[in-house]
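Supplementary notes for students who missed Thursday's class. We covered one full example, reproduced here. Read the sequence, then the structure, then the short commentary at the end.
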Amino acid sequence: MHSPDPWRALDAQPDVATLIAGLEARGGTPAQRRLRRRFLRFVPVRSGTRVLEVGCGSGVVVRDLAALVGRRGQVIGVDASRAVLAAARRLCRPIAGGGRIVLRAGDGSRLPFAADRFDVTLAITVILHVAEPATVVREMARVTRPGGRVGLQDQDFGMVAVTHPDPALTDRVLDGVVRHIYEEPYSGRRLPGLLRAAGLADVRLLTDIFQDTTLEPWTKTFLERRAEYAVKLGLLDAASAQGWLDGFTAVVAAGAFVFTMNYYGAVGVKPR
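Structure (token representation):
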């Protein structure tokens, strides 16, 4: 069955370039950089290690990982989208020398690697979008060496807060859209359970928050896309959706804008 989640079939989207640009815009915000790097320290990712990122997208995290593993380490990124891999190769080229970064096509539910190959295997803001999260996490565990770590980080759309003069309408847009698009919009809180179900031990959880008080470009785009989806899904008419977006203007002008979203990072160890 066709999924309304555009990230399930990225290459089939008419606005694939816009979606890829959005990955880079989100990844470049100071708040996102901070929470991403805190999670990588929490895992932790150390110099000289071999790391696999499942669902690497345009390479935002791959570039962070390359700096952490150093010249003696290696980062392998896999993604099912040819379009996003082409963008990742272009963006990672300046730091990809000597085979330190390898990018290849691959499906997270059938990873093209032998067992016990990686020191660390990661999926960051991916589990929300996959059809069978448990299968992906089991595959991640399979390709991780005994004693190695599997890490998952995801947002949780049940933990989004935004200031707006009409809270009821805001709930209708935000909650309604995610219920229609995602099979499990509250994926963040499920991560520790997924790791334990895959046989991983010593599971730890890091809860973090993306915060914006100025309506940064990525947040603005996020809210605009929610309004667009609300119209497509029949939750609002176009005029009401635009009115909802316009409601943020006075809030921002008054310095009262707040947008927060919880991110959950869970890490487990593969038993020896």
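Commentary. The domain at 6-157+184-209+263-269 is CATH 3.40.50.150 (Rossmann fold). The CA atoms of residues 230 and 236 lie 6 Å apart. If anything here is unclear, bring it to office hours.
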